[in-house]
Here is the input.
Amino acid sequence: MYRLLFLFYIEARPELGYAPVTSETYLKGYSLEHLRELEMVPLTSESERRGRYFHDTLNRLFNLVFDGYRPTQDLLATESRQTGRDAFEIQPLKSHLFDPGYTRNLNRVVFPNHLLQRVIQLMSLSRPARGNKRRGRISYAQLGINQLGAVYEGLLSYRGFFARHDLYEVKPKGESWDPLGIGYFVTADALAEYDEEEKVFIKDEAGHDKLLKHDKGTFIYRLAGRDRQKTASYYTPEVLTRSLVKYALKEVYKEQLDPLPDDAARAERILQLTVCEPAMGSAAFLNEAINQLADKYLELVQSARRERIPQQDYAGEKQKVKMFLADKNVFGVDFNPVAVELAEVALWLNALSSDRFIPWFGLQLHAGNSLIGARREVFTRGQLEHTGQGSWLKTPPERLPLGQPRKEGQIWHFLLPDSGMAHYNDKEVKALYPERIKAINAWRKAFTRPFDKDELRRLEALSERISGLWDEHAESLARLRRRTTDPYPVFGHTARGEATSLQYKDAVVDQELLSNQLENTSAYRRLKLAMDYWCALWFWPINAAAELPDRDEWLMDLENLLLGDTVATHRVGEQMELYASTNPEEGRRFVDKYGVVNFSTLFAAFPRLKRANAIADKRRFFHWELAFADIFRDRGGFDLILGNPPWIKVEWSSGDVLADFEPRFAIRKMTAPQLARLREATFERIPALQRGWTDAFEDSEGTQNFLNAESNYPQLAGQKANLYKCFLPRAWDNGNSHGVSEFLHPEGVYDDPNGGRFRRELYPRLRAHFQFANEVKLFAEVDNHTLYSANVYGP
Here is the structure.
């Protein structure tokens, strides 16, 4: 889908020079456009329907884009002496999007003509109109990136699966069936449990009602309500995005540009600004910020140089500035990995320029949970010797910025237990797992006792090692960023250095940062696992209660992870790959200073670390000051943080989870006893369901406990966790001393009766507040009476 989207776009924009659409040979023999001409041609025979012409044509086109094509490489083209409108040339586009190495599974699939023809129809033509009106051609030249983002971000809310049995659809009684709405499916055996009004009927060819049936093997792709809420994939209309970015940048200019002496300095500062979207989606806010910053830069640099860019050249110069900003200045995080892929494509498409430069986002865009992770915060030794008022259990930690040395007696917060860890209080869960919940509660009580002198000594040693590793990682990441950032000149700004391939950049990150295929782990991987372990204790599986570490085991696990050379990592005479091939000298220096830590050996010796690593992979914990350590060290954080965070209360709903397997939980209103009986019957009928239901509970409860903990979000103490509220203090912490943040969110922060403490921090930062009512339904899923606002916060 992303490849087709990209090709539709570049073939509609010949001025970019990516696709040789002026060549008749390319246009009629290789292009996506010539397949569009076949989109309505009837496929009458089975051989035509099952044939592979569309498939082979698209594969050939994908390969042409990735490998490029020059007539001198083709003997037939040379012999026929193609010239003029017949000849064409394509420069290779060595991007991840078209790299066949990234789609090994997909490369083995052959899609028949009728399927790909249908896909191209849906992407190429408007919806069928009533009457005799013809379907219109979608013009990708006129379609903006934000509009494309609206379409494709919507796909994040859908889930696909193959029907293992014949399936029938059901719905709530009295509601009409929506083919794009949330789907509920049951087998033929279960269908008898539903009333006629709960079954979905469609018209057959004769106009008679028939049950909507999905045959076994059918691929079903439908809206998933619970997944949609968890990923919060609601698109922000462009009219709001443009307005919000405008006023956020107005504050940024006031903070960062106005104090500078002249327009030359102001223009240069724009090329240094860092912009972050912490709930990224399709990067709509990042793209809008890039667009407006590019215009501002060209305005300032023309003023500084007393030189006007010719009107016919302005658009091309602006695209280059947008590419510069996209490649170097924007950062983002999203919980959904597919959203990160979508953001990469959207940022690239928005900044496409005729020089065919390919941006690389390997150190800028990440998949992770922006709200759950460890931080650069510490407690003092004295706070760990008791559990009363002022102790680490009842007081938030203090911030210790990167670059500021740790003092003796300061202990990193993620080395310490918390009374909210694995705190599972739900009655249903307690009834299902009475002994395990008792064991977890006993563990937590012992785990949070005051620390003795020996434990304090061990915590001091661990904190000292963490400080060294963090500084090491920040410097290493800064070097990595310099080595993987290509020089890119724009109007008024020269660039020096050598460009490197995407393959080299990928290898550098894979080996030097992630330590993949190496038998020694980097500072980043060691610190990340230590932080992940701490986060994992908030989400620890109930069924693994016996594996929870006692205090000594916890410290011993961390010592073996962080101190290095504590576990034998190889047999005598065995050859080990310890150093990255991209920078072996740096690898040797690191091993000499910090020793060897081999995760495979470590996981075998300490299974709890392996468990913590698996929990982290599933929950996607994100540690801001680790992932962007050099940004925090060198700049103190980001210059602008913006977006539309999810407006979701974190609440456990047993029925919503069970409804994926038993629709009656969602489509019927039942009393608590009825729900309990149905749940027990469903667990008995589907034995594997209880494990999935419990996992969803652990995720929900762990998230609530983490966000409600005073040590993590002290400003929100006493309020029920709503995700958008948590994004505000996280953004304030992630901004630098001149940092501005701007968010679209509901008005709850201003009228929550328990929010006085939060408002005392919010109001001094508030620079602008624009209130909206949803009367014109800019957000279709939100009630039209709902008030929300655009809010700009300063440092």
Q: What stands out?
A: Residues 75-81 have pLDDT under 50 and may be disordered.
